[in-house]
Amino acid sequence: MIKRVIDFWLFFRVLVFPGFTFILFFTLFCDWVERKIEARMQNRVGPAVAGPAGILQPLADLIKLLSKEEIVPTNAKKRFFRITPVLAFSIMVFAICFLPIDGSSAISSSGFAGDLIFVMALVTIANFLLFVSGWASSNPYGAIGASRVLTQFLGYDIPLFLLALTPAFLAGNLALSVIALSQYKFIPFIILTPWAFVLFIITLQAELEKDPFDIPHAESEVVGGLETEYGGGRLAFLHLTRDVQIVLGAALVVTFFLGGPYGPVFFGFPEFWYSLWFVLKVLGVVVLTEYITCLFARLRIDQVLTANWRILLPLSIVSLALTIAMVTWVYPLVI
Amino acid sequence: MPVPDQDSLVSVLQHKIGTVGNILPGQLGKATIQIESALNRKVIQILLENDDGACIIALTGLDLGEKIGLMYHIRTKGLVVTVKTEVSKEDPKIATITDIIPGANFHEREAADLLGVVFEGHPNLSRLVLPEDWPKDLYPLRKDAKLEGVSSKLADSQCNTQPEVKMQQSQTDSRLVNIIVGPQHPALLEPEKFSLKVDGETVMDVEPRIGYVHRGVEKAAEQRTYLQDVYLIERICGICNSCHALTFVGAVEKILKTEVPDRARYIRTIILELNRLHSHLLVLGHAGLEIGYETLFQYMWRDREPIMDLTELLTGNRVISSSMTIGGVRRDLKEEDVPKIKTQLAILRKKMDFYQNLYRNERSLKMRTQNVGILSKDDAIKLCVVGPVARASGVLTDVRKDEPYAAYGEIPFKIITRTEGDTFARLIVRLDEIDESINIIEYTLDNMPSGPYRVRVPRIVVAGEAVNRVEAPRGELFHYVKSNGTAYPERVKVRTPTFANIPAFLKTAIGGSIADVPANFVSLDPCFSCTDR
After folding, report:
1. In this structure, is the dihedral angle defined by the CA atoms of residues B509, B512, B518 and B520, taken in order, positive or negative?
2. At what angle do helices B337-361 and B294-315 cross, to 10 degrees?
3. Residue B469 maps to which CATH number?
4. Cys staple from B18: which of A287, B11, B14, B172, with CB 3.0 to 4.6 Å?
């Protein structure tokens, strides 16, 4: 009997909250926030029809796409073409499950000592799957868009990982939940290492393929990029992958630098407050990235690569060195 | 600005060409030179050597019954000189001038397409404006062309103007990939095709194919009365519609020798400058979209809207203003509207300060446009580029100064030029021209003469021919009109600025990155609706 109850909670956590269903709807909500913010910043209205203030528009788009006919091009590598969008989406969702949304990860005992590296590796795999999906469509625009995803990814992946090590060093641990918890015990790492936070946000902008780094989506150059040949449900999954990636990126920032799910106010039922703070912080980061998006023009791929290798990579190494120096010499004085 | 001197130009021509050709001063521009068809290369060479900035404006062909007349309209020292020649209809052959002046390439291809003239020695005399499956030996601009049933024949045929859209490896070099931009593509607002041969991200070659929106306006104009033609020709382009209308109207007025009342000239100036304002705002915003700067795009198009409202206030229509008519304008400027226009212009001037600051100082924008698609001054002249594109490369050309029409002769204004010749310069020229346009409109409003705003003209136009030029927002717009003494024109030729500017894109895109193609392209402010007519 007890065993069955445990099973129920496990399924509830994985499938409903804070697992799949929650992540899905939160992603759609973030999509709406993004679109609305961008529209308001550009002096437009944005989604306004479906639901109050258009809040249901992303859901409506998703349902519409899912109900549409899917066309697989004759030249496409059919198996890859069919599988990769769904696989990329599920890997992204799987990665989010490791983040301590309500204080612990979705699968209760799944958090382990090195899950930071594991999550970063999942992001890499998902991006590679996106590349494969574009390449498999056998379309010049798809191929160029896909190669741009990979080229850009090679540029920012290393700085991103180096910067992700900053909080690990500060916490003295590679486990995401420990990183979040140690910020609760001490202070959020954004105060300790503001430079790393700024660099991480810039790199994240590239990883999320947003302006000024939205090169794979430059519709005036590569039409739909890797999405060109996709339609219907698989296109919906590609869109979802992108949106989930934005949530994942924001959630990583929250866990690494903003104190994770822990906030200044909470009483009573802790899971509620944990989730609330986490969601609010993620929304804050989403708004920040969208703000940056609206301010800049799109750079060229060679300019992005130059920026990544010549500026971002050395800076992130310097940042890491500074962090290590801080952990070694400054930390002992404070604690 | 060298003051164009008609007599000295004619005397120079007399001196240099008098022996081989018959010079008629004052016709079709400053002078018309009548020559034998075999001498075309020699005479044009002499004309081009006469001035460093000389280039070909247009090549008009027309059916003269037994013969086909060809007119090379050359711009030298800012003025039009026409070289007139004839070839027989049975064997319409003439030597190409593309090697002397590369800008003549498209003009010759168009004449070959529409009139069947064979230009011997032309590098690529393939179809330019007509569809690939258009019947051979059917030249629509010939008077004896039988066009009945062609459209149904075209509808039946397997229209294979699009050979391949798939990923295709070039035969010559396996590393080259064909990227086809258009006819449907997010970077193009109108349908035209450009095949880019791409090595990685570098463009190696560009092949254009225009004509997707060819509507045969020139032919259609021959079947309508002059007054109907004003509204037909206005619809060649939605954005610079008043410019098209005025160029045609001006040409007809030249044939009729009509004196347009002063007030009409001033009102025309306001309408033309409003055209320029909203066209420049449109392209500057569109440039933002092409380089992924959506916020800029949305802002600029928002601020363009009051200009559309002013056009409506002035003419009754937002887009196609239908305000020009032969002998004046169709609507007077109301006194109570003047302060409204001034208020809106003052608001726009303030907003332009913001955009000036943004365009000149925003780094991501500059990174995408500076040193992209550089067109040198020499190339600009050789390719016969016009308008802001030429001015951004340091070519001092502006019809408003060279050969003032409407009220431009009486209004003080500057010609904006830059020397860099890159995409950034092309955009900044337009940005500065907006300020000048606001000044022009304000001056015009302050100095508006009173009197009638139109005169009545006869419906039947006396026999004669005329050319007329207008500085449209995109550059020099050229019309040739020939009247045969009836209510219908014998021939109308339209040379639009984009038609002259496309060679500049082909030149600047090669060797650049594929990511630069949209920004480079939009900086020419292409209008395919104009190009194809």
Report:
1. negative
2. 160
3. 1.10.645.10
4. B14
How confident is the model at residue B157, as a pLDDT?
A: 60
Residue B336 lies in a domain: yes
Note the Cα B145 to chain centre separation in Å. Answer: 27
Instruction: Indicate the average pLDDT of chain B.
Output: 83
Residue with tokens 């393939």: B126
Q: Over the stretch B58-112, which tens digit does the pLDDT of each residue have?
A: 888 888 888 888 888 888 877 888 888 888 888 888 888 888 888 888 888 888 8
The number of distinct structural domains making up chain B is 2
Beta strands in B293-354 (DSSP E): 324-325, 328-329
What pTM was computed for the model?
0.83
Cross-strand pairs, B493: B480
Helix (H) or strand (E) holding B57: strand B55-63
Tokens 């999320």, located at residue: A208
**What is the C-alpha to C-alpha distance for residues B396 and B416, in angstroms, rounded to an integer?**
9
Domain count along chain A: 1
- Chain A residues with CB-CB distance to B201 below 8 A: 301-302
Paired tokens of A175: 């486990």
Enclosing domain of residue B29 = 6-120
Residue with tokens 């120096």: A325
| φ, ψ of residue B19 in degrees (nearest 5) | -75, -30
Q: Which residue range(s) make up the domain with A168?
A: 2-334
Q: For chain B, report the end-to-end CA distance as a whole number of angstroms.
A: 33
Residues of chain B found within 8 Å of residue A212, distances taken between Cβ atoms = 292, 364
Q: What is the DSSP string of B431-463?
A: HHHHHHHHHHHHHHHHTPPPS-SB----SSPPS
Q: How far apart are CA A251 and CA B113, in angstroms?
A: 62
Strand ranges for B160-278 from DSSP E: 177-181, 193-199, 202-209
Comparing A99-108, A323-332, B430-439, B499-508, the range with the smallest average pLDDT is: A99-108
Q: Is residue B184 situated within a structural domain?
A: no
pLDDT for A63 equals: 92
Give the percent of chain A with pLDDT over 70.
Answer: 95
Q: Which of B120, B135, B158 is the last residue of a domain?
A: B120
Please give the pLDDT value at position A266. 67
B120, B155, B170 — which closes off a domain? B120
Rounded to 5 degrees, what are φ and ψ at A253? -60, -45
CB contact under 8 A, B201 and A42: no
Contact B298 A295 (CB under 8 A): no
Task: Give B184's contacts in chain A (Cβ within 8 Å).
Answer: none
